Amino acid sequence: MCKQILKYFGSLFTIILMVQCSSPEMPAPDRDTTKILFLHHSTGQLIWDGKPRGIDIVRNWFTKVHAVPEWFIDYNSKNGTKYYIEERAFPTDKPYGWKNYPFDYYNIWVKNAGPEPYLEQPTLEMLTPDFNVIIFKHCFPVGQIEEDTGNADINSEVRSIENYKLQYLALRDKLHEFPNTKFIVWTGAALVENKTTPEKAKRTKLFFDWVVNEWDQDNDNIYIWDFYQLETEGGYYLKNEYARNKGNSHPNKSFSGSVSPLFCNRIVDVIENEGTETTLSGRIK
Question: What pTM does this model have?
């Protein structure tokens, strides 16, 4: 009996080693590599993880396989390209706070721009020399939008359309200062119906419609990945079948796995074709 147990665990250990050795790894970048940085919080992590190709339970159980870098490893292999992508939580919880709304990008990158970090968060002056493409997003509380007051304040953390617009316009001007870097902005992650109100949901749609149709300009270095459209399919809420559950606005594994390749499509199209060969959602035209 003991011999059988030892034999079993020995075989299992061998399988683990084989799986780990065969797991794809993103090669270290060199000076000819196109370097991509993805800044995100929890929803972004779910899309990054996605769902690895195929049904390889052993491999996925014992190794950390992430769909986005795996996609790029495969793309590089098939196309002879040298794309390197990495992810970071931004801003970090400490010391800045777990907030990545329009005010926070404005606060770190515009108001406190320069060669030194702000509350340990890198500015664009620090990031752009190292990355050819920078991607950033907001998590779903961005949709908790209050009614406008008529007194817009770019320095306010109040989530309102009037404040968001001022912060986004300042961000656009700032991003234009780095023409050699391409920026991809996610439209915001949506809330499930149970976690918002009809009024806030309508304001959210109005704001991101403005981002897509008015804020985004042709022939510049800023591009859109329309994550909000993918989550809502033209509605006001994260569809329940795409959510972790009706009370949780994080996308589920199935949805994350289905849109992860669209995210990758969009990135490559921005690099290679100025974003002309995919829709804003990342589907091939």
Answer: 0.88
Q: Are 271 and 181 in contact (CB under 8 A)?
A: no
Element (H, E) at 133: strand 133-136
Instruction: Please tell me which residue, 3 or 186, carries the higher pLDDT value.
Output: 186
With a CB cutoff of 8 Å and minimum separation 6, the contacts of 44 are 38, 87, 137, 139, 186
Distances from the Cα of 242 to the Cα of 52, 200, 204, angstroms:
18, 20, 18
Q: How many helices (H) and strands (E) does the chain have?
A: 10, 7
Helical H segments across the chain, by residue range: 2-22, 42-49, 57-62, 67-79, 102-106, 124-127, 161-175, 198-210, 227-232, 253-273
Retrieve residue 259's tokens.
């849109």
Give SS3 for 224: strand
Question: Regarding the domain delimited by 2-273, which CATH topology (the fold level of the hierarchy) does it fall under?
Answer: Rossmann fold (3.40.50)
pLDDT at 63 over 90: no
The number of beta carbons lying within 10 Å of the beta carbon of residue 234 is: 7
125-183: per-residue pLDDT in tens? Answer: 999 999 999 999 999 999 999 999 999 999 999 999 999 999 999 999 999 999 999 99
pLDDT at 178: 98
Please give the C-alpha separations between residue 18 and each of 5, 37, 69, 200, in angstroms, as whole numbers. Answer: 20, 30, 20, 51
**Closest to 88 measured CA to CA, from 141, 157, 137:** 137
